[in-house]
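User: Quick sanity check before I run a bigger batch. Here is a single chain. Can you write out its predicted 3D structure?
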Amino acid sequence: MNMKKSIAMIIILTLMLLLMMTSSIQAAAISKVLNLKMERQENVVSFYWDKVFNADGYDIFISTAGKEYQYIGSVTGTEARVIGFKKGVTYSAKVRAYQKKNNGTKITGNFSNAITVETTERTTLDKTKTLTASQTGGNVTLNWSQVSNATGYEVFVKVPNLDYISIGKVNTNHAVIINCKEGITYEFKVRAYKQSNSSTTYGEESPSAKISIHTKQNNEKYNDKIEAGAVKNLTAKVSGKSVTINWNKATNADGYGVYIKRENESYYHFTTNTTKTSLSTSKLDYNTEYTVKIVAYTENNGKIKYSNNYKTVKFTTEKKQISAAKNLTAEVKNRNEAYLQWWPVEGASGYEVYLSKENKTFQKVDDITKNYMTLYSDDLSYNTSYRVRVMAYEYVNGKKIYAEYSNIARFKTEKESPWENNLDVARVKNVKAKVTRDTVSLTWNKVTNAKYYEIALTIPGFSGETKFQAYTNSKTILGLTEKGDHYTARVRAYQYVDGRLVAGEYSEVVEFMAK
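Assistant: Done. Predicted structure follows.
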């Protein structure tokens, strides 16, 4: 189904919309689009990117739920406002620059990196309605009303002659601010926030709460109770992105304050007070270093006094398992050959390829490091249905750690003697490719009495094949994309047979990479 019909993508006409463009070719003269970004307001998604030198305009492509990218329109500026995205559907977008030539052709550059389009409705958060502040020695305890659907809360403080500044975020409706200075009046505010995959929504700030620090008066109330000591044998046991903290009871302690900070952060976030000597949490990120601080406290008449003694422990969460390969496609080439490709998986060491014939059991047919391959006639039969899937893996300490299977791609090879080819025309053999920077030179053996040759080129980022003609047994093609992009090519001869111009069978596929 055409994407412009299926998701009704429309580029808003405040920008120049350039549809019905002529056919385009790749060329190295146009640079790759960089820094593609997006911003969503209500039902409009605005895309932005850096200007490309000498570009006449830009083509916008959209993919729905990991399917093939489809062209939806062009603009002359570096912004496109697009409507027509459906709620709850995953989209991705990419952009390329182009130049228009006098003869009507359009020369295009390399695609930008793809970005995910956020279509989930943003949650509206309520205002944090109440906020109270109490003092224990040089520490201030804040408590506030919970906000429904909030991921956490951001705390702000104002001191004399300064505006409010953010001092951190917590995921509970209370926080302890330590080491406040004697004689200073502090003013606090709190606001809720909701974190999604690509954006953060904030609620309205709470009313302010003021408190003046007078530690001498408050400390006199604790003269009858000895300060708590430091905890001992503090340990952290990591499992995935979860951790369990354990410690031995501190002397004179009534409970413990738990604080945490990420690597490179300059301050600790208060987590909770507990009377237990262990704590577990899974609200951490993968492959991240954390430091946990445990501070013992004493309690008197409902007032908490934190000890000046504390212990810390560092730990690093485990690396997240790699993702499954996505967008696996299979395209039949020479009747009983198939070209496979899929999106590369970040962190993958390699891929195992599995093939099923006529819906039978999958069998492993290859183990490769690249994200494409050709299944040749040795693996496939004529006029047969197949399924194929891929499993990415990563080597961890010399052992293969597997991701989930990719999607299943289906294809059917052609009959042994299809009508469109004529067996009287010899099959092209010995196709070779020599790449120099952005240029490939293809050569092959001559076919006797050939009128001309047709070259079918697969270009990264495009569906189907791009066709070229040659009247000798060689062809030079300019404008390969940047290093690392993979191409395939195949060639067939055309010849007059009984007064009719017919095509021979395509050659075997030759694979090559842009340098």
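The longest helix spans residues 215-219.

User: Great, the batch can go ahead then.
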